[in-house]
Amino acid sequence: MKICGICDFRKKVSLGSLLLIINLIRINKIYKKKKSVLQIIVKKKLDKDIVNVAKSFDFIDKVELLSKIKINKNYFYFQNIKNNLISYKNQNSTVELQKYYKKYKFKNNLSFKKVLELKTVLNFNNKIKVAVHLKLDKKNRLGNARTNVWFNFFRKLEYSNTKFIMIGKDDYPRKFYNLKNLHIVSSQESLLRMLIISKKSDFFLGSASGISAINMLNKKPYIIFKHPNHHPKIFKKELNNKKKLLFQTKNQLIINNFENEKTLLKYYEQFSK
Prior knowledge:
- There is one protein chain.
- The chain has 2 domains: 2-104, no CATH class; 114-271, Rossmann fold.
- It is 33% helix and 18% strand.
- It is built from 10 helices and 10 strands.
- The strands form 2 sheets. A 6-stranded parallel β-sheet has the order 7-6-5-8-9-10, sandwiched between helices. A 4-stranded parallel β-sheet has the order 3-2-1-4, with helices on one face.
- Strand 9, helix 9 and strand 10 form a beta-alpha-beta unit.
- The longest helix is centred in the N-terminal third of the chain and has 18 residues, at 15-32.
- The N and C termini lie far apart (47 Å).
- The mean pLDDT is 93.
């Protein structure tokens, strides 16, 4: 019997959901020692970038693209399926992942195929490498980064021993390109390579987004700013009256508030030591 995880993208494609489900497949495979399948449910053709990410993990034996959920008697489904549907809320939440952590105390280490990670080399001499992704969604502005705050933060550290590596498909302000300590990865670069850059950097700073999920599912330091009005009920359920998610370390923070220079500088200085 094969382990099967499902990403239902008929309503909305979510990189964060994809990475969460893939990580749950990884954990189930470690402890059940079975072959694994990722099923992605879509109404129309899926973006090539998302497909490439889905196929970039060596512990996933097969990726299936389907138009609807079809129960296979030879598969073990670790998600709750009712009437051929799964919960969108559970798919976009860390609640299930935290339940697994309570049970298994797994290591937070979601890695891509070794050959893919080795191909991505961050050549910035001996500088501290900080991956940054700022959400700048032109259609849904709720949760967007405050670019002036970030610009002032970067400018204060322009001559420090840090290289900030800006990733994402977002349209960053032109003034960012004039800062010497910023390296802005081309928006034409593949999503997979951006995720690998983020994972291989010394730590991550930025917005709560699909890209930040790869750092949340690994062990290096990060500071993720989550807009306080963006899915507040889901995040409250995830925290469950705690200050942090169960699998977070002391140098991994999700700040449920707006960015400000003081907070950015405080944690940059703490994490860069």
